[in-house]
């Protein structure tokens, strides 16, 4: 019999609330030994749902979240309806969510609108019950009201947000609108990075730096136009920031989309000082490394593994070694591994064993109501292999471009599957065996979709 979970989980949360609040009220630091679930052996799985704005799948109608235990997330007789009963996360558009490693805390920075750039955190208490933990802080004065931010993997202590502003430079300092016969010189790209204390909800540091490419690249009109997804190296003394390049025609200073796609680049700067940025370039992968909504680079076994997007040879997983340079001896091409063309990594997440779930599309994906159809694959970073997870159902309207979150619980990885406007399920991938478990049902509404679990 189908078990409707909406009211059951809320009742469970009420019974637990006294103990959880007592644990969290005095000390806002995330508990390193969680006891969140109904039987003390579980963790919370928080489902994120993006409501339609003007068009199906745009996610611009706001974000709702709803939590259930990991056991219940694996149970296909459980059914949840976040769009009807979820907690509304403050954000003008799709919220940028992160969770603590134990699942007990949700971190959010509102995206755009009057509250854009506002950081808040919530204690997860089951179902639609999320209690704000402490006061919030705005990072908008540093990185704007639509910041790119991520939680660093340092024990839930620090978040980092970034922006870049690029302005064309001409020989007489005219702007492109005023330029006629003026000579284009280069783009001046200014990067801002702010670090945020997630425990005390306070700003740690903010630094601005100028980003330069090689003289030849800049003379040909290339510049860094977008950055995102800062990641700490294993030593904890460098921050890697993914980058997207754009190009203008040097003869006119106007946008030029026909140029050569350059080797993938990453900004490396000192941490925690946020100073001395340099740019490194891959000889293996081409295209961008800034990702989109999901974390795009992860530290594993002493190196940082990073996805690229827009590679003419299909997305790669690239490796940055302990020397803070790309390791060009490591070649992991998703086209070759999956036997497709034009693979494009939309989001991904590895477990501690080096096995990863990858959300991707490719040139053979069907065109759905909101864009190209998506798929999931199980990859092995060590063997450099990948297989499509065929036990997860796919159709044209299964849209993953805005996908944000996976939950890693030991060697299990949780994900959501639901086409735009249609019901779906949570699925759990055992990364050791490759076994896929169909879990709780996700009740959808017209034009909306699910953007992951936290």
UniProtKB/TrEMBL annotation:
Residues 1-22 form the signal peptide. It comes from the Bacteria. The keyword Signal applies. Keywords: Signal. This is DUF4374 domain-containing protein. It comes from Algoriphagus locisalis.
């Amino acid at each position: 019999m189908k078990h409707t979970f909406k009211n059951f989980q809320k009742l469970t949360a009420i019974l637990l609330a006294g103990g959880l609040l007592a644990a969290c009220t005095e000390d806002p630091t995330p508990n390193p030994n969680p006891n969140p679930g109904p039987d003390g052996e579980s963790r919370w799985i928080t489902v994120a749902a993006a409501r339609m704005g003007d068009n199906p799948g745009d996610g611009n109608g706001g974000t709702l979240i709803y939590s259930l235990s990991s056991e219940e997330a694996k149970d296909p007789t459980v059914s949840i309806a976040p769009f009807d009963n979820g907690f509304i996360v403050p954000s003008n558009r799709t919220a940028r969510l992160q969770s603590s490693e134990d699942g007990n805390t949700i971190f959010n920075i509102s995206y755009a609108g009057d509250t854009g750039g506002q950081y808040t955190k919530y204690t997860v208490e089951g179902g639609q019950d999320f209690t704000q933990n402490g006061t919030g802080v705005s990072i908008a004065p540093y990185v704007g009201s639509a910041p790119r931010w991520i939680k660093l993997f340092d024990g839930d202590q620090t978040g980092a947000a970034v922006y870049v502003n690029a302005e064309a430079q001409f020989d007489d300092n005219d702007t492109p609108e005023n330029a006629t016969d003026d000579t284009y010189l280069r783009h001046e790209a200014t990067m801002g990075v702010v670090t945020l204390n997630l425990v005390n909800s306070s700003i740690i540091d903010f630094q601005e730096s100028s980003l330069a490419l090689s003289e030849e690249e800049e003379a040909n009109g290339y510049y860094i136009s977008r950055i995102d997804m800062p990641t700490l190296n294993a030593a904890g003394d460098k921050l890697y920031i993914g980058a997207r390049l754009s190009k203008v025609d040097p003869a006119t200073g106007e946008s030029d989309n026909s140029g050569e796609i350059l080797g993938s680049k990453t900004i490396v700067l000192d941490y925690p000082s946020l100073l001395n940025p340099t740019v490194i370039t891959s000889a293996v992968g081409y295209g961008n490394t800034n990702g989109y909504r999901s974390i795009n680079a992860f530290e594993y076994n002493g190196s940082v593994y990073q996805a690229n997007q827009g590679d003419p040879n299909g997305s790669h997983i690239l490796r940055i070694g302990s020397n803070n340079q790309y390791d060009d001896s490591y070649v992991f091409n998703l086209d070759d591994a999956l036997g497709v063309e034009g693979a494009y990594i939309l989001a991904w997440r590895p477990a501690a064993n080096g096995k990863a779930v990858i959300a991707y599309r490719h040139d053979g994906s069907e065109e759905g109501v909101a864009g190209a159809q998506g798929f999931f694959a199980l990859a092995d970073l060590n063997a450099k292999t990948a297989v499509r997870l065929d036990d997860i159902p796919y159709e044209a309207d299964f849209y993953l471009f805005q996908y944000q979150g996976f939950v890693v619980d030991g060697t299990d990885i949780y994900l959501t599957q639901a086409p735009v406007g249609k019901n779906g399920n949570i699925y759990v991938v055992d990364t050791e065996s490759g076994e896929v478990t169909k879990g709780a049902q996700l009740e959808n509404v017209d034009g909306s979709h699910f953007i992951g679990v936290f």
